[in-house]
Automatic annotation (TrEMBL), chains A, B, C, D, E, F:
GO terms for molecular function: hydrolase activity; metal ion binding. This is Creatininase family protein. Pfam families: Creatininase. It comes from the Archaea. The keyword Repeat does not apply. Its cofactor is Zn(2+). Keywords: Hydrolase, Metal-binding, Zinc. It comes from Halopelagius fulvigenes.
Amino acid sequence: MQIQNATWTEVRDTDTNLAMVPIGSTEQHGPHAALSTDTLNAETIAETAADQLDEPVVVSPAVPVSIAEEHRQFSGTLWTSESTFRSYVRDIVKSLAFHGFDRVVLVNGHGGNVAALREVAGTITRHDDAYAVPFTWFEEVGENASRMGHGGPLETALLQYANPDYVREDRLDDAATGGSRRWGDWVGRVNLAFDSAEFTENGVVGDPREASVGLGEDLLDVASEILADLLKTISEHDIERPPHK
Amino acid sequence: MQIQNATWTEVRDTDTNLAMVPIGSTEQHGPHAALSTDTLNAETIAETAADQLDEPVVVSPAVPVSIAEEHRQFSGTLWTSESTFRSYVRDIVKSLAFHGFDRVVLVNGHGGNVAALREVAGTITRHDDAYAVPFTWFEEVGENASRMGHGGPLETALLQYANPDYVREDRLDDAATGGSRRWGDWVGRVNLAFDSAEFTENGVVGDPREASVGLGEDLLDVASEILADLLKTISEHDIERPPHK
Amino acid sequence: MQIQNATWTEVRDTDTNLAMVPIGSTEQHGPHAALSTDTLNAETIAETAADQLDEPVVVSPAVPVSIAEEHRQFSGTLWTSESTFRSYVRDIVKSLAFHGFDRVVLVNGHGGNVAALREVAGTITRHDDAYAVPFTWFEEVGENASRMGHGGPLETALLQYANPDYVREDRLDDAATGGSRRWGDWVGRVNLAFDSAEFTENGVVGDPREASVGLGEDLLDVASEILADLLKTISEHDIERPPHK
Amino acid sequence: MQIQNATWTEVRDTDTNLAMVPIGSTEQHGPHAALSTDTLNAETIAETAADQLDEPVVVSPAVPVSIAEEHRQFSGTLWTSESTFRSYVRDIVKSLAFHGFDRVVLVNGHGGNVAALREVAGTITRHDDAYAVPFTWFEEVGENASRMGHGGPLETALLQYANPDYVREDRLDDAATGGSRRWGDWVGRVNLAFDSAEFTENGVVGDPREASVGLGEDLLDVASEILADLLKTISEHDIERPPHK
Amino acid sequence: MQIQNATWTEVRDTDTNLAMVPIGSTEQHGPHAALSTDTLNAETIAETAADQLDEPVVVSPAVPVSIAEEHRQFSGTLWTSESTFRSYVRDIVKSLAFHGFDRVVLVNGHGGNVAALREVAGTITRHDDAYAVPFTWFEEVGENASRMGHGGPLETALLQYANPDYVREDRLDDAATGGSRRWGDWVGRVNLAFDSAEFTENGVVGDPREASVGLGEDLLDVASEILADLLKTISEHDIERPPHK
Amino acid sequence: MQIQNATWTEVRDTDTNLAMVPIGSTEQHGPHAALSTDTLNAETIAETAADQLDEPVVVSPAVPVSIAEEHRQFSGTLWTSESTFRSYVRDIVKSLAFHGFDRVVLVNGHGGNVAALREVAGTITRHDDAYAVPFTWFEEVGENASRMGHGGPLETALLQYANPDYVREDRLDDAATGGSRRWGDWVGRVNLAFDSAEFTENGVVGDPREASVGLGEDLLDVASEILADLLKTISEHDIERPPHK
């Protein structure tokens, strides 16, 4: 159930303990993909998983601006501090739990949010009256996960399949040639770079020409199935904290 | 320009100092209007004003969850603390200003945000590198403003005109009869109530049967024209702070 | 009972659940009225209402510095951040409630505090062990409320009646001619100005020559009666939060 | 110059870099002395020193509620968190400095504030555009300092001299017999107690019968002279921070 | 140079822009390894790398308590909130930079700190006058990284080599049999567990019997060499933030 | 029991409610004493007292960086804000209490921490599930306390006895001649200085040549005995907060 399309009486009549909060971002995705790429993709995955599930699940509106300071040199990128972001997500989850939807998946579309979401999910689970876990869709696509990049094959493909108007097909060549092959600037496993402008000229990492509608559909199938499975699991999961040893 | 539908290169090529941030809410609007009423209406007003303006204006994604704790007893209402909300808005405006869009209207659809938006706009204007003012659409509709209520004639009418799928027409009678005539519980001009559940049974204030598509169109015309005028004015406004006396 | 003039044993022996916290400000009020105008007026109203009430009410010392950054260009104006102000007021109310005085009116003398007081009263009522409401005296003076201004007829009159030494009668003409007619700089209902120095030369809004001792007495009568009525009402009011629907 | 009794134009015409902020408290002082004892005494000292000084000094209104949680078991005691208190004082000093009064003495009447004032004065001096130092009057009374107690000879005497209405002379015997001889509950120099109710029955420490009007006058003479001397010194003091070594 | 073993004059005479902050933890490491395992190992790596470097590098004392709430059910585990931890590290780095040691490696020994260190390093690099990167030693040991666990082969081996007194050799069998094979409780790549007590009986993950002094030496060689390389690189690295595009 | 040298199972098997947290600092101590002087001395005192006690007491690792901004002009000095420091200590104590070690002495080696430790101990005792008191060793050495200084006879002597490698004996003359006689720059009891560089050339206050191994041993005997006594006392102390009066 998309909460924003429902009335409060319809939500009241929904019998579930499950909710999802899509976590998007408004940030550069190269010259070919819209700034809302992460938001759209998170929404797509959440909606598809909700449809697959037998029991109802409440889906909140997507968080549209998140941790994207690393892309700030590229026009149009919006961001909040990590601390503000965590507070915003935590407050939303607390509201959901207030109504009884206290097992919540944070369905994430942006790599820059992964760590902060894990942190805030831990805080919620340990200290609030709710249980939350983050789910980042492009980590849940099998071997394809290694091709992620930024504005690369995976994100572009999912857009092409579910929101094709948000891809500028005529700029895919530009996107590929002006981008970089790899995220970051590395010594061992240490990334020396903090801003993507340090290693990509046009914001792209990876080759979005490898994307296709078919790939998008495949990614959606795989990720949404795992998400639906996750929802089913946490609905029955023992979320009580373990006793002291 | 809707920033979420643009690429960063398209934003880069946009020559303006103007931006709008629609400020919505996810909160009960009676049994007949969707929880996203405030978000949809704020977006409608912002988009219409942007279309009317000769010069470009950047429109960010709407803030979907805001200060709505007063409606928390009604299922599905989501809220953040006032402090989190102000930080979230401030961070977004700072990002916009970082790209040169440093004159920003906060286009608000929810009464509960009015005070916090004025506060944060003052903080931004005095202490950040930007100028911001809040604009609450239903205050800018002439004499109609007095009929505001909650889930009442104005909000319902604008939805009916611009987003009719979000109104349950068959529940308008229920909405009207189960609601209250007036917002609050008063001694003089002091409202004793802090939660809307203290004075309305079904969340409605006012009679949504007074709404109509025609009224919605009128409201939109009036409010968006004032908003467009506001944008033109601040674009040229002297925003330097006055000297000490 | 003025708490600052009492010993703890006298407070202990006071049987009531009512308290008032006068909220003042130290800020410019034109060339003719003292910087403490708002503090003095808030104290006057609170004391008069306390005298009218049959049951005892504890009156804390006035908060002397509050949200007045908007007047900062005028020498002598003192201010705190909104956040500090709210914390200061909340802590005071929590202390009062710790002693059993858990129904508290925040008796306010300054327009710049109205929004922050409503916010903090909501926080206290929902999350602390107390109930609080703000009362702003110049909103409770019937039709006179429309003549408020700043350092204008109402504030000057109340000073003239209750604290005449704080008005420089010989500067009333200067005050009137160097002031402005209206608070703010407006497009529709949006105030473009954030600092009063943007629209008033000497800090005054309105014509303080319309003030008189008689007007001051009338204002005090009206406002203190409503305040006394408010106290009586909240003393018996059901302050439990409503159940979830 | 008492800032609350002045207009902004009078403050503007005052040529000085000096200011004082009296720091009071609203807290139990036994059955014989008013809850505002610390505020009154801080004001008395500040005013007297201001009168003695040849150059003008701006005196802000007193901070009426401060760090007094240690007395919370005694009715009427009000307090803020240490953090709120520091923010409140810091904001006031920043306002004063904004107008050019950037050398500020925090004239303190309450032992519980000593540490927090030293901390915030350091923060202000190192990180804001101002220089501040705390001055606690009862530490500046020569050998008498050792007789301080709480509601004891020193505080009572200063009240008797400057604000006699705030002492209940007929309860001095009760005050003395129901109080304790010493502040705290000690192992070595560690005070095991955090609340004064752990070691004093009626809130008093020391014997207020040793107070007298004459002693009050003497204390005021000594302390205000040192304070005036302090003001003269800091007015000319090199407040630049030392270079790195 | 170990800063804690030096005098300020010796630090002053040290010509470098490089510093390291070892980041430890005090947390359960099974029945066989001391609670300070992470601290000791971080110190070992930092010291060894410092010795290998031709130029001097300042090494601060280790941060002894960090983000270990996930182990709280096991006695003796100490932790701070993530927010406190980030502030503590940030303040230390700012102090180092104040003295000119403004390129700082955060040499980390605890998996629970990885995300928070990356976040705070970004904040420092973008907003303070310093450049910082985290380095987590057990990520920098080639293929061995996959055997990490908790209190498993890698940590135990490094202790055995560098701090053998901190391993209880006679409990290695117990450690192995009472531990678990894998960190976490997984659906796809989502870890449902937030506390290690949810999936390990005695706190161990992995088989510490696979550890050996020789393995410890190898790990130290590999990791410290990469760390020395990292230090050389950042000493010359262009740390200016990229321009807006 | 040194917690960092124990396994969690060993801590679990320790039957006590007592803990100590040594509070050190990394800050200049003149040309002759190491930057870690305060940490080492706090650890020495805590360990010695632990040995003297009949019952077990848990000793956490020392907090190595604390409130030392006053020494920032001297190279190598590290510091945190007061607020960060208090949070760090509070979190550690809360962790200890989580395991049942809820009576905690903060064994302090640095004068700059005294006030902040008393504040945070009060916060813990009143608002957390623990009781804490600070103990500053050099205040507990009888008449010797008056000779404290900074890097002076007391601190140097304790180092000479317990950690002689951390004293540069050949620089004692330099230390003495380049130091100052007195801490601070005074008017009455007000210290005008906020940074030690305002009154000491080389960071020293007092004459470290008065130190000796014998004096160090004496200081340790006296202070650790009082500390052991304190531990015994609080182990049995009634720590319940007093009732309201």
